[in-house]
Amino acid sequence: MFYIPKDEVGAGSGLPFNPFNAIVAPRPIAWISTRGADGSENLAPYSFFNAVAYTPPQVMFASTSAKADRDGTKDTVANARETGVFCINIVEYAARDAMNDTSGPWDATTDEFTHAGLDRVACQTIACSRVADAPAALECQVTQIVQLAGEANFTVFGEVTGVHMRDACIKDGRFDITTFTPLARMGYQDYTQVTSVFALKRPGE
After folding, report:
1. 116: which of 21, 77, 98, 146 fits an S-S bond (Cβ 3.0–4.6 Å)?
2. 27-188, superfamily in CATH?
3. Contact 61, 74 (CB under 8 A)
């Protein structure tokens, strides 16, 4: 089939649910911790996320909805805008329920670390907390926030200023994701987990 996306049921596909997220999948999940200017902390997952550059290392995430108490966006973007920092915590399969719990429509006064029963620890290069047990975490300084077409669509870019890795994840000098089983987002309410890897050499290597 072929369809042209529109703002209607199934985003123009005629299907009962929008297939777009299921086509662009799997997607890594950024479990983003932020701190507001008032000192309050927030933790929420975003699957429109990826690394975008090596030198300096840079990442991006996008937020596509809004809360009534956050001036056209959500807590994560609002906090990153206020303080200029955020931390991306990598999600493992074992933390799936806690991650899902932090995705709820909680008000700005809710501390998701406490709500989900997660231990936190202070970041080293930015004024923000991170998930203590995450297999890896990227401390980030905001470089730009871009408003995209559509209501409440914002992309936040950041430079990675500090990297935390679980010691047990380092095997033979490499960060081995099979030691913790990363969680990834699919479409609809579906997720998947990475359990194996394989290598391909580029032509000429």
Report:
1. 98
2. Electron Transport, Fmn-binding Protein; Chain A (2.30.110.10)
3. no
Instruction: Compute φ and ψ for 119, nearest 5 degrees.
Output: -75, 145
- Rounded Cα gap, residues 44 and 31, in angstroms: 6
Residue-wise pLDDT for 152-192, tens only, equals: 999 999 999 999 999 999 999 999 999 999 999 999 999 99
Report yes or no: 190 and 22 within 8 Å, Cβ to Cβ. Answer: yes
Cα 131 → chain centroid? 13
- Decide: pTM greater than 0.90: yes
pLDDT digits (tens, 9 = 90+) for 11-46: 788 888 889 999 999 999 999 999 999 999 999 999
Measured between alpha carbons, how far is residue 175 from residues 71, 114, 122, 134, 135 in Å? 39, 29, 22, 14, 10
Structure tokens, 133: 């047990």
Under 8 Å between Cβ of 25 and 31: no
Domain ranges of the chain: 27-188
Residue 8 amino acid letter = E
DSSP strands (E only) in 115-204:
120-122, 129-131, 136-147, 154-165, 170-171, 174-175, 183-185, 191-193
